[in-house]
Design goal:
Two copies of one chain form a homodimer. By secondary structure, the first copy, chain A, is an alpha/beta fold. Chain A contains eleven helices and twelve strands. The longest helix of chain A is centred in the N-terminal third of the chain and has 17 residues. About 1% of the residues of chain A have low confidence. The interface between A and B is large, with 46 and 46 residues. Chain B binds a DNA duplex through helix 2 and helix 4.
Chain lengths: 337, 337
DNA sequence: TTCCCTTTAGTAACGGCTTACGTTACTATT
DNA sequence: AATAGTAACGTAAGCCGTTACTAAAGGGAA
């Protein structure tokens, strides 16, 4: 049978409340008593019952991480970038003394009331892509309910929402600059530019800015939609090629897209980077192992995780929402040089 | 303020216990009453407080996943294979109605008393590599404490422990068979063969079995230690090459090792698969994107996750521990053909 | 009508902990 | 000596559900 604080109290000859205090190192209990209690607790292999503690103190010391995947993938791989985020968030939580509840969700579901409301978690981290409009609606709900949450991604306009995100705009700008510096003139952009994927849109805006600044007109024919996956990148690039569009550089809106694009290019007999220089975005582990290795904009997932967790805890403790942009760092590899 | 079952009881004109029953669809409450209660609950946006429920019912409907990483990596990438496992476990938990608490641990820590004991989780899933001896010791502790747990990996001898694992032996055998069928004669094995890494050892045993069966003597010079990482595979292979060992095939004990090995081979001016055929193990996402794409033994992570979760739940419900081996499936790609 | 069985609710006892408040025994103050 | 202050505990009231036990009402059989 599991020992309770009463068992300890009995053996120590003190009241149960004293046990509770002693175990929490309260200054209200005498050092001697405290040591005795703690010794007995250890002996009995006692562990505080988290449910009881949480119920009483009305907080769980737990953070819920909701990971949204794009709807097409049921059993397929999760984007490695989010996996990396998950890793750093896990670590950050551990450091801050919080437990982490992980849950994969689809946007359509009623996730917005499942954690904070039930006292299972003190706050929620939102991570992932998804239908942006539906998403925004749910964020409003969360705000109305007074749920503590923070999200990763591009800023949400017209709303007071804590957001940690990458500086996609500058990242997109710098990547394009890099391509131009390599002497490339016609740079394709594979990835949607619409507001449904705000991160991609911002990268696209950076791309446009760079081109315009260099006096190059943005050519709509050089942009083609693609969402998140290797397959999407492959198909879109294939499409571009069969349409006979000419380009000597290709900017994939995320690494997976770029990897798919490289596959399409190589199948088409094009050499990378000789015929087409390719860049991606994210710096997923794979990027370093493609052939040639992929130039990309690294998002600092370690920092991102730390900021997400630290700021969420601030929010839990009553601070106002705040927003941070993390700079992206260009990692130059062979695919563009 | 958050609504409690008392609030609902008051509005519905029934007792709080009736509310509790109604919300749990107990047959002890009249249909009409039940619908009324449920309607009010919905209206008030009521959610059961998990802490109270768990405290009372002495179970948490939560599973804890402990992920062990090899000690060298602090902020580096987690092995993609485990990430894939994590994904499938998450999904399996969701399907079974369990929440998932994720925690990264180091073997050295006191993880063996942190979850089940505190009623935070009903059971624990152990995942990852690590110092096997220390690990085994902790497993004994867990067993003594009556903790409900299950693990992924090679079987642990002399112990009653539920284990789900891949059939590493047969996988290793088949991969080697595959290499032999390609006409390769001298096959290097990069990966430790010691009992510290039981998965690797089993793969090595399969490798030996295949060679012997083909009448080829196992050459100790062709085996070199390497643990888990790309870097380790790179260094080990480099070592092999500088020692002037001749081989026309290379079996990496896991994909990351093989990827590192391929890097070393290519730097050394060797063509894959022409000069050296390479195979790996795991089928991590990267394996499909290396150049050339890596032939490997796919571990069915989806099935693995389901089995881990399903069997853990059985154990939680009082069933005896049981063990399953999942077959590996050879995925033939260009690196060996 | 009487007795018994069902159906449907209500009452109240927990689950194990935190913490506000009350109590006791001393020491310090005037 | 009377009073105040303090350190160190004890008492008990919750936190919010679940569920064993009890009760009331209605129906059918004898």
């Amino acid at each position: 049978m599991k020992a309770t604080s009463f068992d300890i109290a009995y053996r120590a000859g003190v009241s149960q409340s004293t046990v509770s205090r002693a175990l929490r190192n309260s200054p209200l209990v005498n050092e001697e008593t405290r040591l005795k209690v703690q010794a007995i607790a250890k002996e009995l292999n006692y562990k505080v019952d988290k449910n009881a503690r949480n119920l009483r103190s009305q907080q769980s010391n737990t953070i819920a991480l909701l990971l949204f995947e794009d709807p097409t993938s049921d059993d397929s791989q999760i984007n490695p970038f989010f996996m990396s985020m998950l890793g750093s968030i896990t670590r950050a939580c551990a450091l801050e003394g919080y437990d982490l509840l992980v849950s994969f969700q689809e946007m359509a579901n009623d996730w917005h009331a499942e954690y904070d409301d039930t006292n299972k978690a003190d706050g929620i981290i939102l991570l992932g892509y998804g239908d942006y409009l539906a998403y925004k609606e749910k964020l409003v709900h969360l705000n109305e309910q007074g749920t503590h949450f923070i999200r990763w991604g591009a800023e949400v306009k017209d709303m007071q929402v804590s957001t940690i995100g990458c500086d996609n705009y500058t990242g997109g700008y710098q990547l394009t600059q890099h391509l131009l510096e390599q002497g490339r003139k016609q740079c394709a952009f594979v990835g949607t530019s619409s507001h449904h994927a705000p991160e991609f849109r911002d990268r696209y805006r950076g791309y446009c800015q760079s081109l315009e600044q260099a006096g190059i007109e943005v050519d709509a024919n050089l942009q083609i939609d693609a969402l998140y996956t290797e397959e999407a990148g492959y198909i879109a690039t294939k499409d571009l090629l069969t349409r006979g569009v000419k380009f000597d550089a290709l900017f994939g809106a995320c690494d997976l897209i770029s990897i798919g694009a490289m596959r399409a290019l190589q199948e088409h007999g094009l050499a990378i980077p000789k015929d087409v220089a390719v860049v991606g975005f994210d710096d997923i582990p794979m990027a370093n192992f493609t052939n040639p290795a992929l130039t990309t904009a690294k998002q600092d997932t370690l920092l991102a995780g730390q900021l997400l967790v630290a700021n969420l805890i601030k929010i839990i403790n009553g601070d106002a929402p705040s927003t941070f942009l993390i700079p992206a760092k260009i990692i130059e590899r062979q695919s563009s040089m």
